[in-house]
């Protein structure tokens, strides 16, 4: 009795090979470099331990790593990083940009530090703009223009709260352990226990946590309704569109 032989079909004959995405790689590399540059400037011009105590720094480290790896993957034709990580990085850096411009650098805000920010000059002023303006805008543009939609899930918005929650615990423990005379005992004015008390700081944290969650839901919702980027890097060639022969 004749038994037909099973012929192995290469995966590339069924699933189109991933394409190199030079535009995405270049843009993500530039944003990762902007974050790294800002981080280096801050560390050179200040105490590393103090610098690493700010949520802005945590978020920009995340952006440098996530977009840096994203650039490498886009160039080497590898799949993108998990959406949980890319979306979480976008959320954290978006909050950094929004809080800085709407709360800290806003004279109408109860927690404004506009006068102190205005005194920044030279490299410190450059780092300030890189970490609070360039990287949030860059991450948003990468999401909107260079990332395929539909990967985020509603549960991600709740999972992303782990980052601000961890930072909140860190900030309070750090403030309780270091000297009361330290000028950066509490990294942000809305976390200053000596001014607002623990009840006030907890209230501020709940409000910010709700804002985190709402923004996370908005990002997921936008990801589910936005069209795919109109880029040659996402198009299927006419050769492949005709199917196998």
Can you describe this structure?
The longest helix is centred in the last third of the chain and has 33 residues, at 193-225. Mean pLDDT is 88; it is low at 10-16 and 235-245. The protein contains 11 helices and no strands. It is globular. The chain is mostly helical and 245 residues long. It has one domain. α4 (55-75) runs antiparallel to α5 (83-104) and α4 crosses α7 (122-146).
Tell me how many strands there are.
0
Radius of gyration: 22 Å
Question: For the terminal residues, how far apart are their CA atoms?
Answer: 30 Å
What count of domains describes the coordinates? 1
The residue-averaged pLDDT reads 88
Strand content: under 5%
Major sheet description:
none
Q: What is the share of helical residues?
A: 55-70%
Molecular shape: globular
Q: Could you spell the SSE succession in H and E letters?
A: HHHHHHHHHHH
Distinct helical segment count? 11
Structural class, by secondary structure, is mainly alpha
Which spans of ≥5 residues are poorly predicted at pLDDT below 50?
A: 10-16, 235-245
């Amino acid at each position: 009795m004749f038994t037909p032989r099973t012929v192995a079909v290469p995966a590339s004959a069924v699933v189109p090979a991933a394409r190199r995405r030079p535009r995405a790689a270049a843009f993500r590399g530039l944003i990762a470099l902007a974050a790294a540059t800002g981080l280096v400037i801050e560390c050179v011009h200040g105490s590393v331990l103090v610098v690493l105590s700010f949520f802005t720094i945590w978020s920009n480290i995340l952006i440098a790593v996530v977009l840096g790896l994203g650039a490498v993957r886009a160039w080497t034709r590898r799949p993108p990083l998990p959406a949980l990580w890319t979306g979480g990085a976008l959320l954290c850096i978006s909050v950094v940009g929004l809080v800085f411009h709407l709360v800290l650098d806003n004279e109408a805000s109860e927690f404004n530090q506009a006068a102190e920010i205005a005194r920044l000059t030279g490299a410190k002023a450059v780092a300030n703009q890189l970490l609070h303006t360039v990287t949030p805008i860059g991450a948003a543009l990468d999401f909107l223009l260079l990332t395929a939609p539909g990967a985020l899930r509603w549960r991600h918005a709740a999972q992303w709260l782990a980052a601000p929650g961890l930072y909140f615990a860190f900030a309070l423990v750090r403030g309780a352990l270091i000297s009361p005379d330290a000028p950066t005992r509490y990294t942000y004015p809305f976390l200053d226990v000596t001014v607002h008390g623990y009840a006030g700081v907890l209230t501020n944290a709940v409000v910010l946590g709700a804002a985190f969650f709402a923004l996370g839901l908005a990002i997921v919702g936008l990801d589910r309704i936005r069209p795919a980027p109109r880029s040659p890097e996402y198009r299927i060639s006419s050769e492949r569109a005709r199917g196998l022969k």
